[in-house]
Amino acid sequence: MPTGCFNIQIDQGSTYSQNLTLTDSSLVPINLSGYGARGQIRRRYSSTTGLENFTTSVISEPSGIISISLTDDQTAALPVSMLGYDIEIYTSGDATVERILNGKVEIFPEYTR
What we know:
Layout: E1 4-5, E2 8-11, E3 16-21, E4 35-42, E5 52-53, E6 55-60, E7 65-70, H1 72-76, E8 82-91, E9 97-108
Parallel strand pairs: 1-9, 2-9
Antiparallel strand pairs: 3-7, 4-5, 4-8, 6-7, 8-9
């Protein structure tokens, strides 16, 4: 499965959520039966620790739909900067792991507190 690249923008202190639909090259949804999802934001790819983990879930296995989200508290803790992220799908015991999406995360400052 090819990896997609998508840059996202997040407002500090705001809830962030996005649904992703995985399809093959013919735009047919990929069945995610038996898969989980995970994702993380890091300062850079070489960072040894992540800044935040996305809350992820497979919300429709046959339709290939994954939900990713961050709470307002999580986004408030992110530094105003350009960061990186990726999203992976995996099977039990990490027998199969595939990166499905990656890109940059631009964090915009929160003024109202």
